[in-house]
Q: What sequence folds into this?
């Protein structure tokens, strides 16, 4: 990942503002760059509800994939009068092609801690957990040091900055299962059990970790909070579109000249992302299509080059933004092979708890293998393709969690936009 | 409160799930993981219904009723989804009902019948039997297991023996005993709760194999003869030979809620054993001979009277058994206190 490649020499705006600029292992450096002033403002100058109102006013929506309004999420948990409440930071980052949270945790760990603290203060929580995927060694190390330093400086622990607010924060290391990024299986895993999603309701905000109210937020989401508090919701809304406020981190990957990670105001188009920020197509080839949002994402073709890459405008076209990763594919890419890879991913990551996904992901994989491997022997036909679609549709309707509901999106969009010809070439003789 | 199912209004209690109200009123919703004893599970995804005002399909075992809720259980959209889920289960198992012990008492078969499934259109290849018959009383056949999780929930939460778990993930998910040991080598106590709760023929009573299917067996309710808990049993009896083929616990019995211990469930050999005493025996000159009840009781009474006369009432003590009922214990202490005339009465549960 070339965060500092030519097209990316501009620093971030909010979430990536400090990354690459400050020393991530120095709390003093963070404080020298206005660190923890937002938390102090919340703690000393605002009451809990004012903090939530500010976040609501900012229009911030979750950056973990589902895009749920953050202020609203907090407002379910805040009024509950329960002794223990938790803030859980989802740093599992399992979506293929997604590595924005890692960049923040490695480059600006205190920003995350500050975001968590403000969230904890707002919903009156007393404990926070950061659930990090086990492969993120450097993130674990740097966050671990940052937490220790924050305790030393009195930002964490009992009676923080001599107020009545007490908050503890701990890192929990995950085992690398994609499904553990789903908030309820993450909670199960935190409780020391197999990472199997729970059925909702109840939602974690009401009954989460140990059945206590728990706010689960993504790393990027939480890292927007300090600036929202110190500069205001209105300032935040000055970036982005009406419905998708603020900025978003995009990961531009694949066949572009300058792949990398960049934070941009929401509303940029795919064309801008590829040809401006990504430096254009590799070897100046034609664009075939992109895969937006990772495996659980959606293929977006050249016909949508000029629509804003926001949740609302993508959803008008049956697509989704997901985590913000954009895999750019040039003409000539074997999409069936890519599809096989995706289907293998789902099959591999299915927790196996519910029937449609446990068997369905395997069935999808076997069918795509039939289409992609040894055609002479397998003799795939259109029925195989239809069977895949029907199976994925049934999975979308009946699966317990979003993992089993996901394969339909890449499959259907692939057919709609781009690979129908390839499939046809293979399956219709 | 009231809810509407398929256009008709039914009474419901606020804490009930949709599937419970449906069942109470004789409306069949195919379901495989839900069981009243283990509560909502939401895993098999077969019991989906449509609820007005909520998009998509909802699992009726996890959807709590609310006043005026309108539920549909039989639209083509629902049946199609249910059919696909059940088909997937059939596609990944060896469901050769003809030779299956569970035939006729199988919830997967019921679901397939209701949905009009003959053969699954798609098959994950030929699936061989995966039998573990290492245990004394229970046979496991994982090729019939649909990973519904009922046995796991029952073993951990109902009988709290904590033997069963799921191993692996995704398509490779399977039930395991302890850390994936053979059942016979695991810490399983053969209580048979998992057999009773399994909706299919994946866990079966080994000794009943080949001794008749459910429609050939008469069901007789009785109380377990072993201990004073008084678990309610259902004997499954072969009509022709009048022999007990297997025993299950009665689910709605307040004493045992369907649970049994290994003795109550599997220890019924004695019923037809050659060594079983069927008449009293009296020992004369070192040899036992058969006697009538009247003769035996008269003899015992006269001996006790003899002791009482010679040594006094306190030379006799009564020790009651935990295997008998409270009423029998009451009668026994009357016998010792009033007829024998001593307070030397105790009970083995105090030892
Ligand atoms: C299979 C699956 C994997 C997920 N993985 C992640 C993840 O790695 N990181 C993340 O933040 N959210 C992930 N999510 C979304 C979370 O369930 C949850 O919506 C999110 O953490 C909420 O945070 P937000 O509101 O700040 O976006 C995943 C969801 C599913 C269904
Ligand atoms: S949809 Fe897949 S990952 Fe989600 S609960 Fe079901 S089996 Fe597990
Ligand atoms: S478990 Fe049920 S469906 Fe499977 S073979 Fe036995 S009776 Fe048939
Ligand atoms: S027989 Fe009893 S102890 Fe053994 S696995 Fe089944 S439920 Fe658990
Ligand atoms: S053995 Fe029976 S109860 Fe246990 S998971 Fe398999 S089908 Fe369900």
A:
């Amino acid at each position: 990942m070339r965060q500092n490649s030519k097209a990316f020499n501009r620093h971030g705006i909010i979430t990536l503002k400090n990354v690459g600029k400050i020393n991530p292992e120095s709390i003093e450096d963070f404080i020298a760059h206005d660190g923890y002033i937002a938390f102090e403002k919340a703690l000393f100058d605002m009451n809990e509800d004012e903090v939530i109102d500010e976040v609501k006013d900012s229009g911030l929506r979750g950056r973990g994939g589902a895009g749920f309004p953050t202020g609203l999420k907090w407002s379910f948990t805040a009024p509950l009068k329960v002794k223990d409440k938790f803030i859980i930071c989802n740093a599992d980052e399992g979506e293929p092609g997604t590595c924005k949270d890692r960049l923040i945790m490695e480059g600006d760990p205190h920003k995350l801690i500050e975001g968590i603290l403000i969230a904890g203060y707002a919903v009156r929580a007393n404990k926070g957990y950061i659930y990090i995927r086990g492969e993120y060694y450097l993130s674990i190390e740097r966050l671990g040091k940052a937490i220790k330093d924050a305790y030393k400086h009195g930002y964490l622990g009992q009676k923080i900055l001599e107020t009545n607010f007490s908050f503890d924060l701990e890192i929990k290391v995950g085992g690398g299962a994609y499904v553990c990024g789903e908030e309820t299986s993450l909670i199960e895993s935190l409780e020391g059990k197999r990472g199997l999603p729970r059925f909702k309701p109840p939602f974690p905000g009401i009954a989460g970790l140990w059945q206590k109210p728990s706010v689960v937020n993504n790393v990027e989401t939480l890292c927007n909070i300090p600036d929202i508090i110190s500069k205001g919701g209105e300032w935040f809304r000055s970036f982005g579109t009406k419905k998708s406020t603020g900025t978003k981190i995009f990961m531009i990957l694949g066949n572009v000249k300058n792949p990398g990670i960049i934070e941009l105001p929401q509303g940029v188009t795919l064309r801008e992302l590829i040809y401006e920020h990504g430096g254009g197509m590799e070897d100046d080839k034609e664009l075939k299509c992109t895969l937006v949002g990772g495996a659980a994402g959606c293929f977006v073709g050249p016909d949508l080059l000029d629509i804003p890459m926001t949740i609302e405008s993508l959803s008008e076209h049956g697509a989704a933004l997901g985590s913000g990763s954009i895999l750019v594919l040039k003409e000539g890419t074997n999409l069936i092979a890519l599809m096989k890879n995706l289907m293998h991913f789902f099959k591999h990551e299915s927790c196996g708890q519910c029937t449609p996904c446990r068997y369905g992901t395997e069935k999808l994989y076997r069918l795509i293998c039939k289409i992609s491997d040894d055609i002479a022997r397998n003799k795939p036909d259109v029925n195989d393709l239809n069977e895949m679609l029907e199976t994925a549709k049934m999975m979308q309707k009946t699966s317990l969690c979003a993992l089993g509901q996901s394969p339909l999106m890449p499959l259907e969009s692939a057919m709609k936009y781009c690979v129908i010809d390839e499939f046809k070439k293979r399956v219709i003789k | 409160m009231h809810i509407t199912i398929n256009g008709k209004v039914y009474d419901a209690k606020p804490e009930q799930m949709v599937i419970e109200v449906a069942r109470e009123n004789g409306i069949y919703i195919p379901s495989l993981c839900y069981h009243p004893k283990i509560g909502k599970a939401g895993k098999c995804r077969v019991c989906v219904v449509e609820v007005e005002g909520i998009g998509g399909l909802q699992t009726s075992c996890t959807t709590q009723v609310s006043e005026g809720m309108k539920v549909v259980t039989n639209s083509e959209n629902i049946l199609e989804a249910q059919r696909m889920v059940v088909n997937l289960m059939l596609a990944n198992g060896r469901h050769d009902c003809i030779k299956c012990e569970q035939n006729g008492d199988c919830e997967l078969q019921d679901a397939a019948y209701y949905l009009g499934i003959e053969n699954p259109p798609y098959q994950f290849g030929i699936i061989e039997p995966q039998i573990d018959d290492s245990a004394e009383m229970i046979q496991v056949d994982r090729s019939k297991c649909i990973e519904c999780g009922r046995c796991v929930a029952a073993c951990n939460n109902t009988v709290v023996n904590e033997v069963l778990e799921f191993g692996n993930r995704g398509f490779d998910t399977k039930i395991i005993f302890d850390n994936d040991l053979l059942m016979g080598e695991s810490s399983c106590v053969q209580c048979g709760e998992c057999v009773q709760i399994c909706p299919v023929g994946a866990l079966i009573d080994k000794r009943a194999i080949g001794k008749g299917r459910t429609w050939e067996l008469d069901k007789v309710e009785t109380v377990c003869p072993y201990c004073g808990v008084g678990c309610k049993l259902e004997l499954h009896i072969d009509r022709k030979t009048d022999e007990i083929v297997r025993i299950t616990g009665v689910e709605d019995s307040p004493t045992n809620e369907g649970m049994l211990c290994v003795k109550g469930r599997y220890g019924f050999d004695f019923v037809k054993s050659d060594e079983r005493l069927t008449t009293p025996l009296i020992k004369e000159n070192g040899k036992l001979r058969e006697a009538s009840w009247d003769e035996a009781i008269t003899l015992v009474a006269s001996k006790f009277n003899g002791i009482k006369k010679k040594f006094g009432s306190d030379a006799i003590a009564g020790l009651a058994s935990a295997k008998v009922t409270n009423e029998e214990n009451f009668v026994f202490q009357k016998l010792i206190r009033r007829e024998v005339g001593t307070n030397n009465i105790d009970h083995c549960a105090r030892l």
